[in-house]
């Protein structure tokens, strides 16, 4: 098996790890909201969880299909739109964590 054959799978795993990481932060935010008795943080946790689900349910499968198709045809696999979308999701997650710290 060559590196080209495994590239779509590695890409899919990286996107899944990113989505799971965002969901983990959402879980920690939810725990903190319940522990500190701040229901407003539950909204932040819920929004963060939706970002994680968007990465896992929409962006990751879309990106896997793109990479698999492009590698199969010998084309370039970069996709600036997808990279920007996941970067925004991660930055919003970081902002949610910062809000949680400031409000506590």
What's this model, at a glance?
The chain is mainly α. Helix content is 89%, strand content 0%.
How would you sum up this structure, described in words?
The protein is mainly α and 104 residues long. It has helices at 3-36, 39-73, 80-103. 89% of the residues lie in helices and 0% in strands. The mean pLDDT is 88.
Keywords:
104 residues; elongated; mainly alpha
Shape: elongated
Strand content: under 5%
User: Which segments are poorly predicted (pLDDT under 50) over 5 or more consecutive residues?
Assistant: none
Query: Termini separation (Å)?
Result: 51 Å
How many runs of DSSP E, i.e. beta strands? 0
Average of the residue pLDDT scores = 88
Rg value: 16 Å
Q: How many domains?
A: 1
Q: Bin the helical content.
A: over 70%
How is the secondary structure organized here?
Elements: H1 3-36, H2 39-73, H3 80-103
Helix pairs in contact: 1-2, 1-3, 2-3
């Amino acid at each position: 098996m060559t590196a080209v054959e495994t590239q779509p799978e590695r890409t899919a795993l990286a996107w899944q790890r990113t989505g799971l990481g965002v969901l983990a932060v959402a879980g920690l935010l939810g725990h903190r909201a319940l522990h500190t008795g701040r229901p407003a943080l539950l909204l932040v946790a819920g929004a963060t969880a939706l970002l994680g689900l968007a990465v896992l349910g929409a962006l990751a499968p879309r990106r896997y299909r793109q990479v698999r198709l492009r590698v199969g045809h010998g084309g370039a696999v970069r996709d600036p739109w997808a990279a920007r979308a996941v970067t925004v999701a991660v930055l919003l997650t970081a902002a949610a964590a910062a809000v949680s710290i400031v409000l506590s």
